[in-house]
Each structure stands twice: as structure tokens, then as C-alpha cells.
Amino acid sequence: MNIVDYINNLNKERIEEFLETTNSDITIKSDIERKVSDTSWIDMVEECIPYLDNIIRNPRRFIVQEENIVPIEKTKVVTEESIRHLAQNTNLIQEVHDDGTVIPLKLLNVYREETIDLYENRFIKSLVDNLYTFVQNKLNESDQKSYAKVHNSVTYTGEKKEPTASYKISLSLESNFDDVVDASKDGHTLEERIEHIRDVIAAFRTSTFIKSLKESSPVRSPIRKTNVILKEPNFIKALELWEYLEKNNIKPMSSIETESKESKDGNIKEKYDLAFFIDTDALRETKNEAPLYNAAIISKLINDFVYSGVVSEAEFRRVLNREFKEASRRKQKEIENVKSYFENFVENFERKERKAISLLK
How far apart are CA 242 and CA 253, in angstroms? Predict the structure, then answer.
């Protein structure tokens, strides 16, 4: 009989009687370690990267005008501003010829130069520096993954007494499994997303825009709310990132929690009681099928065989060995069937337990 047929043919009344008269106990322990990493900073940085990229690729520029009054011999370019200034300041005229030619002593020189050294640009440069430091600090804290490590143990004892027999069982079962939170996004793993952020920040820091502001004064909080920062979409997002970094730079992004639970689940206990019944039932069947190996039975067996006809000792040994091997094979098969069922039962229990724990998280 295979194990499936064996289970299907179990006597329900015998099972109920067994469970009612069996003294058993079960203890289930769970030790759980949870590591929760706040990876919201990755989402925030990923969201703001395109806006920073727009600013760095197309920085705001300003024309700086510098005015100096220099001797006429050092004047390189005479502009309208130079003539207008000379007309307003006749003391700078050296002489006037009869033909009306004016010889100035000094002239106003106007220098115009384009620069990106603006407050808004210095704000972006400081933001990129702060972002780099922030990301490095977070990566140095710990692994960014969130997970739960669960160690379960089950201890079961049972005792069954009958008028002519008694049974005892003691069982210990342990399991360990890890449950890692999947932080993938758009087909990219957590590690790939972090690596992308690293590459982008490195590119920002080596850009011409950032390098040109290397000697500029850094910007610190509170941020001056200029019209550009308050109204231009790219700078609005940059300000949002600045405020996020300041707020989250002072609190840990990861936390580890431990929890221990102990229970005596009646439903699980019933399953172990059923396993205890199956073990004892298998022993009964083995006992009923196996001969009682004592001197009286063996003596009768030999006498019956010998007196039943003319049998040589060699023939007797051959038959005895054959029957003994066959009986041993049947016994071993029954033991393996019971063992296989019990292993399947334990495996199913562990799977259901893991599912139940995951639903409770």
C-alpha cells in the first residue's frame, strides 16, 4: 500500500480516540530580526536629477560691466559711454583744436564680461556638493536593503498509554529563512539605482559649470528666495531637494528591530498529534506483520518443514534465506513510506508557517 492510499484509508474513529486519550504538548518559538532601510532618498534624488541636469547644462548668465577712467594712451576702445562721460566731465579734456578736434586727457573705459557667478548658480553648486556628501554618508551607514531574518523552532512531546502498550515521542524542528524586500524599480535593482546616482553626481561635479564656480562662495541656509528660485520649475525642484537633504541628514535611514514570540498553537499541535498517531499505527502494523522471533516458534517452523517431506539442509537454508530477504524488503519499504510521509508533512508545515508569518508582517 502506498502512502496516499494509507492516508486515505485511515480509520477516523481510531484517530479521534487516539487524539482524545493522548497527552501531548507543543511549543513554537519565533525569533525575528528586521532591518528597515528608508530608501526614499533614492526616489527623491532620482526624481530631482533631470531638473539639476537642465540647470547645469544651461546655466544662468549675467553681463558684468566695469567702468574705469584711464589715461588716453591706455584707452583701447572709445564707446558712446566714453564720449558722453567726457562731455559731462570737461575737466578731463586736455585741449581743443581750432578745427574742433577734442584731445582728452583721460577717458572712461567700459568693460563688459559674461559670468555665471550668480547666487542661483552658487546655490546649485552648493546643492551638488551637499548631495555628494549626503549620498556618501548614507552608503557608509549600512547595507541599503530591508530584510527579515526568521528563526523558528518547534518542540513537541507526546505520550500514549494503552492497556498492553505505551508510546512516547519527542520531536524538535528548526528552520531559518531570510525575506528580502524587493526595491527594484523600472527593471533596475536597488544596487543598480544607487550606482546610477553615483555616476550622475560624479558627472555633475566634473562638469564645466561646477568647475567654473570652484572659487565661489558656498551658499548656506536659509536660502534666499529669489524670483528665479521661487518661480523657475528647475530651481523649485532644486530647492525641494535642498530642504529634503537638510531634514533627512540628521536622522538615521536604517533601523534594526528584534522580536521573539512563543505560542502553543492548537491547530499545529493537532497536526503533530496526527503524525504521532501515524507513527504508532505504523508500529502496530509492523508488529502484526512481523513474526515473534523466539525459540518455540522457530523450532516449530523447522520441525514442520523437515517432517513435511525429504528436505536437505541446503534446500532449507535456501528457502529460509529467500523468505527472510523478502520479509526484510517489505519491512524496509514500510519504514521508508512512513518516513517519506512524515518528511512531507514537516515540509508542508514549514511552508504554511512561512506564509502565515509573511502575511502578518
Answer: 17
Query: Prior bond to 233 cis, omega within 30?
Result: no
For cell 535593482, name the residue: 189
Q: Which residue has the higher pLDDT, 168 or 251?
A: 168
Angle formed by the axes of helices 40-57 and 119-141, to 10°? 150
Q: What is the pLDDT of residue 65?
A: 54
**Residue 285: count of CB within 10 angstroms of its CB:** 14
Q: How many CB atoms lie within 10 A of CB 302?
A: 12
User: Quick one: pLDDT at residue 253?
Assistant: 58
CB 311 within 8 A of CB 305: yes
Residue span of the structural domain in which 310 resides: 3-34+149-176+262-360
Q: How many domains does the chain have?
A: 2
Task: Name the percent of the chain lying above pLDDT 70.
Answer: 82
**Do 125 and 159 fall within a single domain?**
no
Cell of 345: 508533512
pLDDT in tens, 66-86: 667 778 777 777 777 777 876
Residues in the chain: 361
Residues 59 and 109 in one domain: yes
Of the residues 255, 280, 298, the one at which a domain ends: 255
The answer on 319 and 230 residing in a single domain is no
Of 199, 180, 250, the closest CA to residue 45 belongs to: 199
Q: Is the same domain home to 228 and 316?
A: no
Per-residue pLDDT band at 292 (split at 50, 70, 90): very low
